[in-house]
Amino acid sequence: MTEAAVTAVSRSGGHTFSKYGEPVIRLLAGLGVEGDAHLGVTVKHRSRVAQDPTRPNLRQVHLIHAELHDELAAEGFRVAAGELGENVTTRGVDLLSLPVGALLRLGGEAVVEVTGLRNPCAQIDGFRPGLLKRVVGRDEAGRLVRKAGIMGVVVAGGEVRPGDAVVVELPPLPHRRLDRV
């Protein structure tokens, strides 16, 4: 079995759809990714700011599993790390099955607490026409499945680089299933 690891780190200082690959990013406790447009205690995502700018920022860090990029490539959609807006790309972790409150230890110091699922929007089709249908689906029971990654908050700061280990710590039972944030 492959060890869980960070494969890429990205950020963007502007509210751009895609983020730009970096050799290292710094996570700041309670804030998010240093130099990223979504850094802050309160919501920064433009649609959420329009609803209520005082709400807590549960979307400080966006993570996507590299296996999604592999799946999309097999369907004819070439998508590189950071292009779907994620800050951290991982491999070897089933991010979508994690419960609310799971802790992701990234590298030697940084810790991200999982808050929920990214809710893919129509901007994805603006990036690659037809891609939205590939990152949203239905399970056997007909429930909506969002595959465009997870969101979290930084509980311990530190630098994160490609190649860093990812260690998952599950919260106490009962686990709460991820929902969109």
Characterization of the model:
With 181 residues, this protein is of the alpha+beta class. The chain has a single domain (5-169), classed as M1 Pyruvate Kinase, Domain 3. Helices cover 13% and strands 31% of the residues. It contains 4 helices and 13 strands. A hairpin with an 8-residue loop joins strand 1 and strand 2. The longest helix is centred in the middle third of the chain and has 9 residues, at 66-74. It is globular. It comes from Planomonospora venezuelensis. Residues 20-169 form the MOSC domain.
The largest sheet has its strands arranged as 2-1-6-5-11-8-7-13
**Uncertain stretches of 5 or more adjacent residues:** none
Question: Mind telling me the CATH class?
Answer: Mainly Beta
Shape: globular
Instruction: Give the topology string: H per helix, E per strand.
Output: EEEEHEHEEEHHEEEEE
On the 0 to 100 scale, the average pLDDT is 95
Q: Count the strands?
A: 13
Helix share, percent:
10-25%
Strand-residue proportion: 25-35%
Second CATH tier, the architecture? Beta Barrel
Structural class comes to: alpha+beta
Radius of gyration: 15 Å
Q: For the terminal residues, how far apart are their CA atoms?
A: 31 Å
Q: What's the total helix number?
A: 4
CATH superfamily: PK beta-barrel domain-like
Count of domains: 1
Short structural description:
InterPro entries: MoCF_Sase_C, MOSC_domain, Pyrv_Knase-like_insert_dom_sf. By secondary structure, the chain is an alpha+beta fold.
Relevant terms:
single chain; 181 residues; alpha+beta; M1 Pyruvate Kinase, Domain 3; eight-stranded mixed beta sheet; three-stranded antiparallel beta sheet; 13% helix
